[in-house]
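I hope you will forgive my troubling you with a question about protein structure. I should value your view on which stretches of the chain appear to form regular backbone elements. Here, with my thanks, is the record as I have it:
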Amino acid sequence: MPRWVPRAIFLLWLGFLGTVLVQELWDRLFGFFLLLVISLFIALAIEPGTNRLARRGMSRGLATSLILGAVAVVVVGFVAVMGALVADQAGELADNRDRYVTDVVSFLNDNFGTGLDAVEVIDSLDDPNGPVRDFLNSQADRAVQLGVSVFSTLFQAFSILLFTFYLAADGPRLRRTICSWLRPQRQRMVLDVWELAVEKTGGYLSSRAILALVSSFLHWIAFQAIGTPAPIALALWVGVISQFLPVIGIYVAGALPLLLTVVDTPLKGLFVLGFIVVYQQIENFLIAPRITAQKMQLHAGVAFASAIIGGAVLGPTGAILGLPAAAVIQGVLSSVGERYEVVDEAQGDGE
């Protein structure tokens, strides 16, 4: 046997065991790394505000705490308002169940010829052995799972806030620590990338905020004209969720006003669905590309692709972080290498 064969077998097994170990560690630490990435994103977003307050004499710890506290108040208030709206509509639905069932059955019979009987539908809802009660009983066991999920979400949110506080409050110290391990030329590159990440993250948030404001305003006008319940709250819901949850955000955001409107008046639900679909097309092709290009200097196609790729890699979190990550990568690549004057034949017509 050649001498290299035992060594090759040993290295093969060592590489295999190392791969298994790395994969196992990645599976166990993936949640932690995801929380850390989210915290870094938020820290980059609030760093300009922290620096501005620090220049006015406030300590970085206090400045970071004030900004994070304001963000937490806004998020909790938004969730509380939407929760109260859903609870109020659910109570109204329960109190006027028979009328809603009759209206929906009449709408289906008149427009689709279903031939349903409203009395039979109501009786099936009241039947203790009916399919509706069986479904509700089957979901009772999930109440504990829901409680555990809520507790886990709150713990993760607290962890994100804690990591964000340390990353933002100790930002300069963190940069000095990283740069102390690098040569001066590499230090300058790290600082440039850091500043670029702060700029692009701020541009992403400002562009999303502008789009959310425009979307909320236009949806409020439409919901007010259609006559949906709580038009202001639903418009804010659609505007915020559709912008800060890319790709699938519009479907998640549109489901709530559509459901509440269909329960009230099915015909109004069709108008709500139609407006959401039409507005989404207008936003995708007219509004969003202009704002994204102005705030982030990112092509609309690149932005859409980055959201899809980020969602495929990290889920909804990756879809949100994909846009600023793509903007940072594009900014870094634009500063690397030489640039040449473009020949006339490559300019194209209308440029």
Q: What stands out?
A: Residues 175 and 191 are 8 Å apart (CA to CA).
